[in-house]
Amino acid sequence: MSRSSMIRTFRMVFLLAAMLLIAPLAEAIVVAPHHTFLDHRTRSSVIYLHNTATEPEEVSISFVFAYPVSDSAGDVSVVVVEEPTADDPSAAGWIRAYPRRALVAPGETRAVRLLAQPPADLPEGEYWARAVVSSRGTQVPLEEIDTTEVRVGLTLEVRTVVPVTYRNGDVYTGVVFTGADHSLVGDSLAVKVGMQRTGNAAFLGTLHLLLEDASGNAAAEEHRLVAVYHDLLKKVVVPVGDLPTGSYTLHIRVDTERSDLDPANVLPSQALETSLEIQLP
Q1: How far apart are CA 181 and CA 183, in angstroms?
Q2: What would the pLDDT profile of 202-239 be if each residue is shown by its tens digit?
Q3: DSSP assignment letter at 263
Q4: 77-114 b/e with 16+ CB inside 10 Å = b?
Q5: Do 157 and 39 meet the contact criterion of CB atoms below 8 Å apart?
Q6: Taking Cα atoms as reference points, which of 194, 188, 205 lies closest to residue 235?
Q7: Which residues does residue 58 pair with via DSSP β-bridges, in sequence order?
Q8: What is d(CA 28, CA 137) in angstroms, rounded to the nearest whole number?
Q9: Distance CA 254, CA 170 (A)
Q10: Distance, CA of 145 to CA of 164 (rounded, Å)
């Protein structure tokens, strides 16, 4: 093997080792809460940055307009709108973080205040942004090859994205079903539930699926958190491989129960229910 080939091989080995070495650092900065809310009365909120690593972390905070969307398969992802239009309910352009940059020592918890400075003529309704918390630790040293004086190091940047909601005036929400269907995939039942938000605020709730046999006994149950900002097609996979052949009823319910959020921040809405008849072969 030539000397240049050996160096390339060593570098590849070192980079692979780096991925294993820095993996535990990937969540060095923990951000809380995981969803923050502001309104027209206070116009401010606080998030906390906690450094779980053994090295200082350089942290910066920026804002983008983004919200969850789904594809035709029912898979959900967050889309970032680089240039929001005047019709988009974006708060990204007028929410600020103080401080915007900070050095967080190991074990330290820093408070960052979010301040909303909306336009004076902002219509009533809900406006959205995502706080992007970027953290960079000190450079991770890997190896040194004395014969070639090659030094390899990596600086890892990790981004944590936190939803930010601003509510102006009278806000309300709701949801309607736009469809529900199912298919058997292997030993599981793939259920797709279509939902459309009503009102002028996002619907934050939980989707409940309860599969009952012909006698009304619970055979399987699944629950998923949902956030319906516009339209959402949510796929839920229900394992049914151990269930006997026969007829079942799938009860579908969506409500505003959210175990992960302060109830004071969850807008109330009437629960919605529907059902599907299922035949397991």
Answers
A1: 7
A2: 999 999 999 999 999 999 999 999 999 999 999 999 99
A3: G
A4: eeeeeeebeeeebbbbebbebeeeebebeeeeebebeb
A5: no
A6: 194
A7: 103, 136
A8: 8
A9: 23
A10: 47
Beta pairing partners, 176: 196
**β-strand 29-32 against 44-51: which pairing, if any?**
antiparallel
Please write the tens of the pLDDT for every residue from 112-160. 999 999 999 999 999 999 999 999 875 545 444 444 555 555 567 889 9
How many helices (H) and strands (E) would you count in the chain?
1, 19
At residue 259, what are phi and psi to the nearest 5 degrees? -70, -15
- Structural domains in the chain, CATH included, are 3-168 (2.60.40.10), 173-280 (2.60.40.2550)
User: What is the CB neighbour count within 10 angstroms for residue 158?
Assistant: 17
Closest to 204 in 3D by CA, of 233, 227, 173, 235: 227
Residues forming a β-bridge with 208: 223, 253
Q: What number of other Cβ atoms are within 10 A of residue 154's Cβ?
A: 15
pTM score: 0.83
